[in-house]
Amino acid sequence: MEKKVEGQFEEHDGMQFYYKHYQTKCDYGLIWIHGLGEHIERYNDCFDAWKSKLEIISYDSRGFGQTVIKSNAPLGCNYGWETVLNDVVYFTKKLKAKKIFIGGHSMGGLIALGCLDKIVSTSGKQVLGVVSSSPAIKAGNSI
Question: What is the pLDDT of residue 77?
Answer without folding.
Answer: 87
